[in-house]
Amino acid sequence: MIKQCGGDDAISLYLLHKKEFPEFGDKYTISKKNKEYELNDSTQTGLDPKWNLLYQSLHDFYIIANVDAFIEKHLYYYEGAIQEISKIAKDIDLVGKMEEYTNQINDRYVISPEPLFITGDWRGIGPSVNADEISMAYQFISPSDNIDLTNFSTDSIKQFGYDDKDFITNLCVHEFGHSFVNSSFYNQEISDYIQNHESLLTEEIKETMQREGIGSLTGYLVEHVVRLLEIRIASIYFGNENAKKIRDENKGFIYLEKMENELIERFENNRDKYPTYADFIPELIKIAGK
């Protein structure tokens, strides 16, 4: 059922519109006008019934498995992880820097440590909820793979997996970056442009996308634009060395170099014409059609 619903990215987004367990029911309405593009299987009569079935199943599991007791037992860990994240995030004011550069804001930012989110590497999800004229940016992040927790002991724990400045900086900018970018791809003009150009992709580009684990041109361009934001935030606020590292780690995103040149020349030097980062995204995606 999880596979049918698109995996944990889409599911986490869906669950953010629901009340927190053990409560049950809707917390926010999924907007038809501004719905997150991950939930693109909605119809005029609402979401596919499989979503409600999954929600009911997860709720039943939560009650039967007594997840409340599990969380309470391990609360010391969650509190420790939150303290590690909060200290780094506040010291470097990531949200303030992103809002300053993009000239865009969200009403709320939430970072949630996910200690069970271990896949052999770091993992992050950055869904956003737009409801009742309120924009809320979330991110769920694994522990840093640079911190060894193999000798984890409840009696002597001093590290919780998140005391890693580079890890928090890079992952938080990336995941919160989606809240400044994704909604632009709901725009019908952008959607039509991408659809018209997807059929023109070469086999080489398709293979590059597959190596990055991305199956559509929309997803590929979203990740380009988010990574580009990472690079510019790093370059302006943290130095060229940090920006170069991000560029080097993202060679599979083949339009990045041209996008960055366009961004610097036409966006950063012309903020009167493009007041927000989102205003320039329609120009950025045209690079994929050149």
Helix/strand class:
alpha+beta
Radius of gyration: 20 Å
Beta-strand proportion = 5-15%
Count of discrete structural domains? 3
Low-confidence stretches: 33-45
What is the number of helical segments per DSSP (H or I, 4+ residues)? 12
Question: What sort of overall outline do the alpha carbons produce when their principal axes are compared?
Answer: globular
- Amino- and carboxy-terminal Cα gap: 40 Å
How many beta-strand segments?
Answer: 4
The biggest sheet amounts to: 4 strands, mixed
Mean pLDDT comes to: 86
Please write the string of helix (H) and strand (E) elements. Answer: HHHHHEEEEHHHHHHH
**Portion of residues within helices:** 40-55%
What does this entry look like structurally?
This protein has 290 residues and is α+β, with helices and mostly antiparallel strands. The protein folds into 3 domains: 7-68, no CATH class; 74-182, no CATH class; 187-289, no CATH class. Helix content is 52%, strand content 7%. It has helices spanning 7-15, 49-64, 67-73, 75-92, 94-102, 165-181, 188-198, 203-211, 217-238, 240-249, 256-268, 277-285; strands spanning 108-113, 124-125, 128-131, 134-141. Strands 1, 2, 3 and 4 form a 4-stranded mixed sheet that branches. A hairpin with a 2-residue loop joins strand 3 (128-131) and strand 4 (134-141). Helix 9 packs antiparallel against helix 10 (240-249). The radius of gyration is 20 Å and the shape is globular. The model is unreliable at 33-45 (pLDDT under 50).
